[in-house]
Each structure stands twice: as C-alpha cells, then as structure tokens.
Amino acid sequence: MKKNRLVVAAASTITLALALTACGGNEEPTDGGDATGEVRVWLVGSDTNDEARALLKETFEAENPGSTLTIEEQSWTGLVDKYTAALAGSDAPDLVEVGNTQAAAFTSSGYFQEITAEQFEELGGDDLLPGFVEAGDWEGKHYALPYYSGSRVVFYSKQVLGDTPVPTTLDEYVATAAGLHTADRSGIYWPGQDWYNALPFIWENGGFVAEPKDDGTWEAGFSSEGGIAGLTQIQEAFATSNAPKDGQETDLQVPFCEGKVGFLSAPSWIQWSINAPEEPEAEDGVPGCASTYGSDLVAFPLPGKDGGVAQTFAGGSNIAIAKNSPNPDLAYKALQIILSDEYQSIIGAAGLVPAKVSLAGTVDQTNPIAAAGVEAAANARLTPASPKWADVEAAGLLASAFTKIASGEDVETVAKDLDAQIEEILNP
Amino acid sequence: MTVVESPGVHAELGARPLSAAPVRARKRGGARRRVGDVVYGALAVVVFVFSVFPVYWMLNTSFLPNRLIRGSDLHFFPTPDVFTLDNYRTAIFDESRSAFIPALWNSLGVAAITVVVAMALGFVASLALTRFSFKGKRTFIVLILVVQMLPGEALFVSIFRIIDSWQMLNTIIGLSIVNIAAVVPFTIWTLRGFVNGVPAELEEAAMIDGCSRAGAFWRITFPLLAPGLVATGVFALIQAWNEFVIALIIMQRPESMTLPVWLRTFQQATQATNWGAMMAGATLIAVPVVIFFLLVNNKMTGGLVSGAVKG
Amino acid sequence: MTLTTTPVPLARRRRLPVMPWLLLSGSVALLGVMTGYPVVRLLVMSFQEYERAQLMGMPAEWVGLQNYVDVLSDVDGFWTVLLRSVVFMAACVTLTMVLGMLVALLMIRVGKVLRTLVTVGLLFAWAMPTLAGTIVWGWIFDTEYGVVNNLLTRVTGESWMGHSWLLDPLTFFMILTFIIVWGALPFVTFTLYAGLTQIPGEVLEAAELDGANGFQRFRLIQLPFVSSIVTVLVVLSMIWDLRVFTQVFALQGIGGDREQTNTIGVYIYQTGMAQGHYGLAGAIGVIFVFIMLGLSFYYVRRTVREEEL
C-alpha cells in the first residue's frame, strides 16, 4: 500500500512537471495581420516532392521577410472529414490542397475564398487546366484553382513480361493479364478498393458514372448497358489479380518488387518507390528494387477499347485559400509561387501534369514513363460535376462496390445498388 | 447488491480484490480431481494466451526488421541476430512523419490536466452528494448517470464549435476541457461511493475535539480515501491518454496532435503501411499504460469494480 | 481524539443548501456547457437543414420533422445499421458475460499461481489502449503478412495468404467481436470474481457435502448470489457495446467494406462529419439517445432506488 502510494505520488509529480513544459511550448501563433505572419499550407500525400516544397518555402520567405511558411502534410484518408471541421474553425490553415473531385463540396459551401477575375488572370488565366478550373468553380466564380493533374499509366517490368507483346486494346490488356496470371503472379495487380482504375473500363464500354437529366436530377449509370459491360470486364480483370480484394492502394511497389506483378496501373510517381534502393537507409523502412525489377521499368497509357488511349480518370488536385485563413494576402502570395512557371515545372519534371497547359512541354519527354503520363492525361475525364459528388466518395460507395465486384459478386445487383445509393446522395 | 455495497467491503476490495482466498473443496482427492486440475490449468493458460497474445505480438513485431515482418517465415521471438530498434527509430525520428515527441508532450499535458481537474471537481462534488442532503440531489444523481449514456459522436460538431468559439482549437487546454467533461460524471460517481464508505461520524467526532469542519475532513476522511482517489485518477488518466476521436477533430495542427492521432498517421491511403513502425508506435503508447496498470492494479481493479457495480 | 458518537447535527445541515451547490458548481457549470449545450444544439439541429454551408455561417433553415422522416424511412440505411448494431451488441454481450463468468469460476477453482497468471493476462488486455489494441488485431489478421493467415497456411496446407478477413462483413464482425470481448472480458471477469469470492465458504462446502455437483452449486448458490451484479454488468455491457465507436472506426480504416460494417456510432459520424449532413446526423443522434435512455432506464432507476436514503 505504501509502495503504491509512493508510485502514484511520483507519477503525478512527473506528469505535472511535464504538463507545465507542454503548456509553455504551446503559445498561440502571433497574429501579424497582413504584413507578416505564419502561413500554413496543407498539402496532401506525397505527390508534391521535396524539391517543390523547398522552393515554395524558400521563395516565399525570401519574398516576404518576417513571414514564415509551414507545410503540413495531410493524409488522403479521411480528408473530407478533416477539412469539414478544420476549415470551419478559427484556427484554419491558409492554403489547402484538395482532391479535384472533392473540391465542389467545399466551393459550394463557402469554405474557400473567392479568386477574383483579376487575380485569376494574374495567376495564369486561360492557361490553367480547363477541366480543373471548372472543378474549382462555383456559380460562375473561381474558388479553387488547378494544382496538378496526373493520370494513371500501366507499369510493367520487361523481366516479367518477357516476349509477351504490349497490349494495344483494352480487351487485349485483360486477355494478356489473364495469360500472365498464376497463383504466384497477378496479371493486373489491382486491390479491390481502388476504384480510380475502374472508371476507364466503364467509360470505354460506353457507360457513365452519373449524368444530369433534363429535370436537373442526376442519373447514375453503372447499371446502364455500357456500365454493365464495363463492370463485367472489370470483374474479368480483377480475376487476374492476387491483390487483396478489399485492399487499398498501399504498398504497390512491394509485390511489384517481388516480381509478382504483370501490369500495375498506378500514378506515375510510383516509379520512385519502385526504383528506390533495396537496402533503404534505416529511417525509411520501405525498400524498393532499383537493381532488379525496377531496372527495366516501363509504362504505357491504358489502351482504349478500339485502340488508342483509353479515357482515364483525371486524378489531381486543386488548391484554394481557406475562407477562414488568418493571412489571406500572404496566402495569395504563396499561391502565386505555387502557380509560377518555376514551381509548376518541378511538378512536371516529377512526372505529374502541371497546372498550366503551356508547361506541358516541361514534362521530361526523354522519360518514357512521363511521356506515357502526358499521353494518358490528354484523354482524361473527370467525375460528375455535382457538389454532392465528394459525399459519394466520402461515403466510400465506389470503393465498397468495387470490393464486391472484385470478390465475384453478381455484377447487375452490385450495379443497381450502387446506382441507387449514388442517386440518393446526388439528389437529396 | 449484497456484495459490494457496504462501505467496509469497498475498502476491503480496494485493498485486496484479487487475492481473496477462494473457497475450495479440498476433500475429494483421486484421479478425477487430478484430471480436473490439469484441464482447468490448461484452460487458465488458454485465457492467459488469448489475453496476452496481441500485446506479445505487438512487441515481437516491433523488434523485427521489415524484411522479416513481410517475409513468409514466422518469427516468434526477436532473437539477437535479427533484433532491431529500427522500427522505433522510424516511429520516433522519421522526419517525413509527424513528430512523436511533441505528441508525447501533448498527451502528457492533456492527461495531467484532465486528471487533476477532474479529480478536484469530482471530489468536491462527491462531498456535496454524500455529506449533505438537499433539494435537487436526486435529480443531479440521475443526470450524472444519464450523461454517461449519451453518444459522443452526435455531439462532436457542437463541441468543436464551443472550443472554437473560445479560440482553443489546437490547444492542450481545449482538449483537456472536453476530456474533463467526459470523465467528470464517472469521477463523481466513483468518488461518491468511496466517500460514502467513510462514516461521517468520524469527522463529527473530530469536530467535537475542536477541529473545524474542513479540518476534520482533511485530517480524518481524506487519508482514508486514498485508494478511491488512486482508482479514479488512474481511470481519468487512461481515458485522457486513449481519447482519440475528439482529438482528431480539434487537434489538427501537426504539432498539436496527441499520441493516438499520431498513431493513426501511420495509416495512409497512398503510402506504404509500415507495420513494424506502426507496432513500435502502438507499443510506445501502450507500454506506459500497461506498466501503470500493473503497478496500481489492486486499487485500480478494486476501485473500478466496486464503482461500477455500485453505479 | 476520542471517537464519541454525538447527536448528529443533521438538521442543521439541511438548512444550508448553499454549501452543497457551491461544491457542485464547478461540475454543474462544466457539464452544462460541454454536455448540456451540445445536447440542446443536437435537438435544434435535428429540426434544421444543417449542412457544411451552415457550419461556415449560413443561416439554417427550419425543416420541421423532415430529418426524422428521412431517417425513419431509410430502411437500407438507418434501420439496417440499427438492426446490425443490436445483433452485434447482443452477440458481444452474451459472449462477454458467458466467458466472463466461466473465467471467474476458473479463477476460483485453480490455484494461486494460475490465478495470478490469469489476472496478469487480463490486466494486459485491459490496459491496452483501444486504438492500439484494434490496430494490433488488424495486424494479426492482416491479409498479406498476418500471423493468422500464415499459421492457417501451415496447418491446413492450403494457401490462406491473401485471404481477407475484413472483406466479408461476417468475418469482419467476427474480428470486431474478438476485439470487443477481448477488451471487455477483464472488467466483467474481475467484477464477477469479486462477487463470487464474497460467498461464505461454509455455504458451498455444506452444499458439496450434501452431494451437489459443480453445476448445481453454480446454479443454486453462486449464480443467485451474484445475480444482481450480473444484471448490472449486462446492462452496462449493452450500453457500451451499442455505442462502440473507436474499434469499428479504426478497423474500417484497416480494411473491409464500410457500407456493410457501419454500426450506429460510426454511422452518425459518417452522416455528420464525413458527409456534412449535420441535421440528419442530429436526428439519428436524438433517436439514438432515446434508445440509450430506454436501455439505461432500468439501470438508472435501480441505482437511484438503491440510493434511497
């Protein structure tokens, strides 16, 4: 009993002491108004590379003496939930990246500051990627501007593919994958929750995700004739995959580096993960395979149903100034840097499609993977332009439905349920 | 409620709840008995393994290098030839992840404030509910019970807005206030049971001997409440340490994360899940609690058990 | 200091209602602001169209009972989730109580060493933080590198590698049940054990001499003796398991189909925080509060009656 009391006494003294330290370090940021201040930029995931981050910070701090810029990296997981609360609060960040398909949920609810016509011109005007400008508009005004785009390309290693010819149509793609599939090797490595890769099949088969009807309501199209054809082909493609049927797109480089993957449809930056050294420095625990399957890594744009390039999903991000930003003027200055040619060229060099059409040339054409990315992006499409679309994503409906398709459930039933659920959200 | 309702039993439970010698029939010996012993012994081991396995597996994984974690051979023990602290290094120092140390300070700060304030509030409230009889007491007791049934998820938005309107988002104080409000009903309820267990007559006797009311309370009752205070305090501490969802919403700057929120950053949709580092992170969060729990286990279990059975 | 009993000045205390309320003031103020106000807001929002735009300051529109109508007519959403939560809760409570009782009896039956072993094991499980515990279970059942799949592959000779436990809602809930029961078992066991050890030894010995076998002793003596503890534990477990949040939320983050695995708490969060329908989430919340109050009615009434001073 005595011993216990001592322990508790000691413990509480320690915790108290620690608490005091913690409080001391937690001062409120100084509110410098417009002249100087701390600008907080929320970038999501790892698409923005370190070079671009460093440029943003250094340029900004050099141009605005006395002000600081902090990049706070966010996770795509639960992003909409987090933004919904965080941007509505008084301690909101200044500049935020948001997925292009998620932007409408926020632009339609007054979460972002308006970009005036004048500012819009200054930042690039008509040179900005049109589809992405549209994604960030609301009722004729600009709120979120394009940040970058990136379409998926299909990776493979020649060591795995051998003499098999590269498919030139979508049907060939699935057929080739089926030929490559063994118990130990996926034809197409495709985790079930990854719905981005599924949309091209829908579109190429003549289906659609959701379209506005004449009366202004939305109609979902997975159970349309083309939709069913697409889903059926998707199920065939899933059958060539050994990836977890409910898996997410994590660790894509791991099975690839084990030589267990024929085709891998992924964002182009995955090349850096695959090409990482086998024995990473201790701090970065996840190894690549630069000397084996990464050494002859190549990529091609997903082929279309009738040859050519498939209509792929235009992934990417928009960027906007938060309505509750404490330093909107400084945030605008940071936005100028982000949309500058110099910054966007770094984005292009990293294998993404820059936010400006005129910079498409900065993509390194000598890198076949980057070239494939540009080719794919030329034919890219967006998700339905409804402000409620982000809710469809946040509810995980597509991930859920494709998980079912992957595990072999009846295509028509899944399609019907999915359409009903999507329509319920889009037509409140 | 024959069991734990009398004050005496409270104290007794607080002191030695898990060592009470059970009744055992010692008479009938023989083979059947011995077979029974073996079977029961085996069952006890099964219970132990089921309970401890996740903790063990977490520790084991956290000390293994990633190539073995992802390999197809099973490693049940991090033998010296493969033992590594790399996962801990990654979890704590990796710069591409949110920092561990600030999260640790935040968690400690929140836990300390929560415990101190919740105990103080709970303590004085429990005095009011035990040493006084007044109009509204019953209503208050009912409310204290009912409040604990409310689904927190439904209240998140309003709580967020309150904290926001006080300009306390991303502050230790802000999160502490939410936590205190969450544990105070339980604290009051449990402490009330313990204070009830100390007869008011003791204080009154002291008052006759010349102590003031407060003095009598301080010298006589307070020391007798030690086990109850420890049990309640540990409970509040653990609540604050584990709280996760509210922290997710109101602690959004990377430097204001608490440990559970920090642990969640290991799971990202587009990044590799580093299970080794994640288990190291889970270990870092769990180990202090486990140690604390084992140290105060007698008072802890006794207090909580009696508190819960009482109310 | 002598311990003389005195005519207690109870009457005098009654005349001073200021003091107790003074002592309660801190808690009352805190709970009023941090719990009372949000509950009122919840009620108000449930009658409004309250979405993300309202969170940003747009005035909210009153919609009367529309949110309630929407929720209560949503068979695929609300009712399915509610039914699922109730079935899941029933399974967890039954398992926890039965196992808890068995382990408590076991602790009485075995010797000191084994009892300590069981106690320590249960303490480990009890102390494990909820989130960390859930993540560890997720890792144990991991699709690609999990120890369960690995062992099953070795034992059965078939390949279990790549088998996803979280994909099928049934096995998802099986694992969730594991996590919940594993976490709840220590408390239930310790409480029942504490109750069982209060039974006077002579009673049981007498029964044994009378020829009562183990099961009869349990049914006729031990169970009736702890029946009130059992009731309280059942009610508390029902409440806890119905409002479970962290475990489901975290496990969904690891894998599985959210749509088919939502329980009521996560569903409220999804509707509100994730999709921004705060009015709708408010209506679900209010309905849920009534369900919880209904469940706890017995417990509260019983506790308050026992209070009867």
From TrEMBL, chain A:
GO molecular function: maltose binding
Gene Ontology CC annotations of this record: ATP-binding cassette (ABC) transporter complex, substrate-binding subunit-containing
Origin species: Antribacter soli
Membrane spanning stretches: none
Keyword field contains Nucleus: no
Identification of the protein by name: Extracellular solute-binding protein
Annotated family: Belongs to the bacterial solute-binding protein 1 family.
Keyword tags: Signal, Transport
Keyword Transport attributed: yes
Pfam families given in the database record: SBP_bac_1
GO biological process: maltodextrin transmembrane transport; maltose transport
Signal peptide: 1-19
Gene3D superfamilies: Periplasmic binding protein-like II (3.40.190.10)
Domain of life the protein comes from: Bacteria
Automatic annotation (TrEMBL), chain B:
Record-annotated ABC transmembrane type-1 domain positions: 104-296
One Gene Ontology term, aspect cellular component: plasma membrane
Chief location: membrane
Superkingdom, natural source: Bacteria
Keyword presence, Cell membrane: yes
Signal peptide: none
Keyword terms: Cell membrane, Membrane, Transmembrane, Transmembrane helix, Transport
One GO BP: transmembrane transport
Transmembrane segments: 38-59, 103-128, 140-163, 169-195, 216-238, 275-296
Bilayer topology annotation: Multi-pass membrane protein
Subcellular location: Cell membrane
Entry similarity comment: Belongs to the binding-protein-dependent transport system permease family.
Protein name in the entry: Carbohydrate ABC transporter permease
Organism: Antribacter soli
Automatic annotation (TrEMBL), chain C:
InterPro entries assigned: MetI-like, MetI-like_sf, UgpAE/MalFG_permease
SUPFAM superfamilies: MetI-like
Annotated Pfam families: BPD_transp_1
Keyword Repeat: no
Compartments where located: Cell membrane
Domain ABC transmembrane type-1 stretches: 82-299
Mode of membrane association: Multi-pass membrane protein
Gene Ontology CC terms: plasma membrane
Keywords: Cell membrane, Membrane, Transmembrane, Transmembrane helix, Transport
Annotated protein name in UniProt: Sugar ABC transporter permease
Organism: Antribacter soli
